[in-house]
């Protein structure tokens, strides 16, 4: 029963973002087409790559904070709050920024590891291998649990009693499985594009996709059953 409810929750999260997901997939297709066929767009991306190289891990840290913490709050303010900024928005950014910034650095390091392990070839087998390691090892056993554990702790007001939920079966069924299922609909095609790009452009592309993913993850967290009030 718990597994069925978790699968249903994950499916509902993915379905509720179906139209935005199609928009994201279309945007990725346009991005790839422009990269392959438009010299001006490639020149622009080359300049982005220079910034990425000069900033090193700082680029991953700051850009991931913008994509995961700042931009989703801006969208909430514009779409749901009719342009009115509240204290909740500021607190939301400040409390979620640390995990997105740190995870941005971790993801950047992971992409460099993938490059060292499998090389920079864009052959289908190489990309498929990187996607498999990313989505079926790194994501379910590290990034998804870490991010969800932090967001659960945050939702509990950063109280230690949140550990009771984090180390429980409810955490797995109510948060991890739904987030993982929804995440696969975004990140399997997403990281396929990421690993097709040159190494210096992989993190910038991942950041663009990460903004959409942070909105889905927030939706799952808001819908998860928890005894703690949101902060």
Rg over CA atoms:
18 Å
Round the mean pLDDT to the nearest integer and report it: 83
* Shape annotation: globular
Largest sheet: none
| Counted beta strands | 0
Helix-residue proportion = over 70%
How many structural domains does the protein architecture include?
Answer: 1
SSE topology string: HHHHHHHHH
Given helix and strand content, the structural type is mainly alpha
Question: Regions with pLDDT < 50 over 5+ consecutive residues?
Answer: 225-231
What amount of the residues lies in strands? Answer: under 5%
C-alpha end-to-end distance: 30 Å
Count of helical segments? 9
Task: Give a brief outline of the structure.
It contains 9 helices and no strands.
Polypeptide structure, described:
With 231 residues, the chain is an all-alpha fold. It has one domain. The chain is 85% helix and 0% strand. Helix 3 crosses helix 9 and helix 4 crosses helix 9. The longest helix is centred in the middle third of the chain and has 32 residues. The C terminus is likely disordered.
Please outline the helices and strands.
Blueprint: H1 2-16, H2 18-37, H3 39-55, H4 57-79, H5 87-118, H6 124-155, H7 162-166, H8 169-196, H9 199-223
Helix pairs in contact: 1-8, 2-3, 2-8, 3-4, 3-9, 4-5, 4-9, 5-6, 5-9, 6-8, 8-9
């Amino acid at each position: 029963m718990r597994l069925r409810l978790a699968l249903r929750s994950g499916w509902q999260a993915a379905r509720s973002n179906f139209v935005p997901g199609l928009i994201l997939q279309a945007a990725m297709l346009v991005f790839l087409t422009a990269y392959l066929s438009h010299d001006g767009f490639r020149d622009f991306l080359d300049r982005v790559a220079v910034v990425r190289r000069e900033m090193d891990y700082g680029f991953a840290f700051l850009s991931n904070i913008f994509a995961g913490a700042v931009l989703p709050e801006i969208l909430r303010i514009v779409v749901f709050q009719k342009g009115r900024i509240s204290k909740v928005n500021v607190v939301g950014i400040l409390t979620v920024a640390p995990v997105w910034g740190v995870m941005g650095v971790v993801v950047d390091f992971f992409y460099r590891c993938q490059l060292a392990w499998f090389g920079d070839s864009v052959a289908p087998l190489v990309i498929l291998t990187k996607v498999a390691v990313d989505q079926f090892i790194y994501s379910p056993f590290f990034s998804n649990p870490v991010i969800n554990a932090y967001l659960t702790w945050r939702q509990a007001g950063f109280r230690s009693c949140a550990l009771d939920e984090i180390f429980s079966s409810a955490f797995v069924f109510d948060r991890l499985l739904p987030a993982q299922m929804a995440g696969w609909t975004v990140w399997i095609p997403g990281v396929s594009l990421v690993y097709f790009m040159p190494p210096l452009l992989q993190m910038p592309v991942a950041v663009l996709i990460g903004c959409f993913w942070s909105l889905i993850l927030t939706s799952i967290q808001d819908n998860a059953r928890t005894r703690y009030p949101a902060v």
